[in-house]
Model the fold of this input.
Amino acid sequence: MSDEVELHPAVAGAQPYMRAETQGENSAPEDAPLFDDGAGRERLEKVLSRYPTRRAALLPLLNYAQERNGWVSRPAMKEIAGELDLTPAYVHSVATFYTMYNQRPVGKYLIQVCTNISCDLCGGEEVLERFLEETGTRPGETSEDGLYTVMEVECLGACGFATVVQVNDEYYEDVTPERVPEILDELD
Amino acid sequence: MAFPETHERETRTLLSRHMGEEEARTLDGWRERGGYGALEKALEMEPDEIVTTVKESGLRGRGGAGFPTGVKWSFMPEKGDDPHYLACNADESEPGAFKDRELMRWTPHLLIEGCVIAARAIQAEHVYVYVRGEFFEVIRILNRAVTDAYEAGYLGEDILGSGWGCDLTVHVGAGAYIAGEETGMLSSIADGRAEPRIKPPFPAQSGLFGDPTTVNNVETLSSVPMILDNGADWYRQWGSDDSPGTKLWCCSGHLNRPGNYELELGMPLKDIIHDVCGGVPEGRQVRAVFPGGSSTPILSRDELDCETTYEGLSEAGSALGTASPIVMDESTCIVRAMRRVAHFYAHESCGQCVQCREGTAWVTKILERIERGGGEMEDLDTLYDLCEQMTGKTICVLADSVVFPLESSLDKFRDEYEAHIKHDRCTATA
Amino acid sequence: MPEEENSDLVSLTIDGVEVQVSEDSTVIEAAEKAGVVVPHYCYHPGIPTRPAQCRVCLVEVEGQDKLQPSCKLPVQDGMEVHTDSDDAELARKSVIEFLLVNHPLDCPICDAAGQCMLQDYAFETGQLQSRLNEEKLVMGRDRIADDILYFADRCIICTRCVRFMREVAQDDSLVVAQRGDRAYIDTFPDEDLDNPFQGNIVDVCPVGALVHEDYLFKARAWDMDKTPSICPGCSNGCNVTLDTKENQIVRLKPRYNGEVNSYWMCDYGRKHLVMGNRGVRTEVPLVRQGGELEPMDWSDALAAVGERLGGIEGGSAVVSPDACNESLHYFRRLLDTLGVPADAGSYRVEQGEEHTLPGFPKLTLREDRAANGTGADLFGFRRVESWPEPEPGAPLFVLQETLREAPESYAEDASFFLYLGSHLSPAARRADAVLPVTTFAEMAGTFTNHEGRVQRFQKALQPPGIARPAWMVLSGLLARSGDGSPVLDAADAFGEMTDERPEMAVLNWGRVGLKGQTLDSGAGAEAGAGAR
Done:
């Protein structure tokens, strides 16, 4: 697929994130601003143009924070709150409702293993175990080299291809414990 | 790249016809396949006519509840000064379901076309397509298609010179199953936390931003263009009177050929499992099936003759749900399976209603204890009591979603639970 | 509750009792009218939104399959509601059991014990604990504000506190974080609440999740006496309850008055009184004899003072805007008798920043930080920035003004200095006679708030020593010179006052009741929220 030439406002709040370029050692510092430059302002304006209220831009802007910085820091929440006339507490309330907003930096490769029913029937928990073993981490913890964060995740919506593993923004399907070392090798 | 398996009993002429064809994703490729023809037709029609056609087709909502789509549209009030909205539920997250993902990956323009036609029917000026956040690949594909559709004049002001227009915005979730609940989704878009709210008022009266709103599932909206293209009678040649058309089935679990299949509604469930999906691996027997996703009551091996229509599965004591059979063979520990399902709903409870917030977590803890050893017979009575008190008492049906499978498993596999408690381990799978 | 006069009435039955309520009522309100209290947590009549999320107010409605949340369900004509059906009672009991899954059974050390809606309903339904065999979730406690602690384990996520802040204080700084059984109440991390009305979140908390740190472990609910009163913190006149223990005010709690403060009060008011208890109290009459203030009993003291007053003509007076109407009335009468010119009486009001509660603007912490400035005006006292230095060689009469902030030399040269007060400040020690009077908490009387609403307060504390209400002392003093007879009862004092004051003629002790009556309420007009 070709790169977007210019971002259409219709999709401005819906850009993928979870990329190696913004995670691990590439994570932005806590106080990295979101809307201090042309790109940030433009994104903000485009997103706001799609909703009748400023508040509705909250999820799109949290997505943007994560896309840009790799995680959603407290200063980022405050900055978003300021732009949307919300309190920081309100943004905190919303951000913590969802599981995809990382409130601290994660490894360069965020590995999320589905262990929900269909995947569990096909060995999801063993796949998770294997990833933890190979990366030497515990669930949710980032490996010392900053490369991997392995987590259990709920249904990823690809149940016919169990076990499903999401590595950053990509799905790996029909994953078996045996395939785990190979997947990790491909990453770096 | 996965795409639906094919099988001779499939009806691959409808929804899934172009799955697997890379070019169908592009605007040109889609137009070459007759894409946006239905929209052109719809632009010539009055909104009422579109509603009537869809009503006559008998299309039922594919998100799980199965409510007739045309009837739902007709609940929208007369268009006044207030904006109308269409929210497309693309937050597919019911364990077992993975059809909307495939639809959007392969035929994003089909969805866009369906959205615009539906928007015209309900006179909405803005469509929000709420895609679950994890679907990054889908989001890329959909974003591309939306951008192209705007450029080609299928979206925006004055669509194809008709003088009528509507916008479409891709809105992305961030990991919350409950955002797939109708009012939860509207809360998520407008306010942030995906907390369902009490009905009435129904979204058609007061929905997104307090204005009249219809929420339709991806598969539902993707079914609309062909109905407009070919007419209601044409659509009714498939399926039963009460469940016309075809349905994308999502088959997972212990199957030789899991995957998506487009099937006429009505095929016996056992045929889907044994014929279409090639049965369970290594010649094992089926132990139980969640026929419509993890929130539907489970059926045991000897209940699989039922017809897979809305009414057929209801008669069998379960539900069509999202048409997502999760098949468990005899190597499956029922206690563990139920613990896993309960754990999911506990994780996804928004936390508003007491029965759901505390009940889903409590049920999970009991099942965990039985699973690891340490269960007591009284636990089963407690589970039954909790099921009763978690049914029909909350704002939305998330709590009920645990009860349906759990209670049916207690009814049908009580001996397994008892043996598990007695021996502090699973004996059924030994 | 919606006013019934404003809309059409519908009839329905609650547990067989027929009631008529306005058509915009909900079933829970109709039930209250029928004398049936439906247990509820998330519903609070003073908080606009009704999320219907605690699910404990579920009732059975004939013709409906599912139990319905009565807080949200609009009444309909002919509706038949059962709060006591088996299904409704079982559902209620089960909600208590669900809540007790993670709620600790730490009632013996919980500040809310005795005033806890979970404890109440647990006893009411007999559901004293949960069958939970698993470990309870432990979340610990957190600071929400400089004086408010949050015990997350006790919290039942009814969100009253969040909605009070959001909808009534209109300060969206308190939220629900996380979801499911991990949900808890939170501020933005590391930022405390900072709102002049935040104390109300402790009051609306139906359990012991939010507690004032000041009162932590200080008193058990059942050890405290509760007396209806008026907050003396400013001229708004918020209706309050004084919680007292061992003759000390432990705290103030707002008391509903739909015309004044709804269910709320400000934090200044909560703290002001407890802090204001400091200082040396006057306990017995003191009369200067041979240069020294000598203690006396009332009879001797009044006789001595009466004698001294006999030869006095003119002078000036200072009153406290915290003195009640009745005391001001008799004081004014005394001054008139002594020929003190009307404009020679003054009062000073401490000023502070004004804060309005956005969701109920009638509740405003007024700039005037005194309860009865309006009363002082009514009785002809002149408002001043600072008291005029008394004319040297002339008499000075002081009512309840502590003179704490008076200059060192104040009243040094007065020919006669009569001090009726509750505290003995350095300036007050200069008086020729000190007559110990009670504070408002130690007596009954009325205040007139900023908009002319006259409101009663009751006696909550025993006065120290032999201190008496100023109106009692003053009427006794007047009686000595043949002017009326001593008044021993606040109602009588009020009666004499309203008889003598045409602008107060409309007032009636009974009608003032617990909700007050405004000076412009014409004869027959019902005061405030009526019978509530």
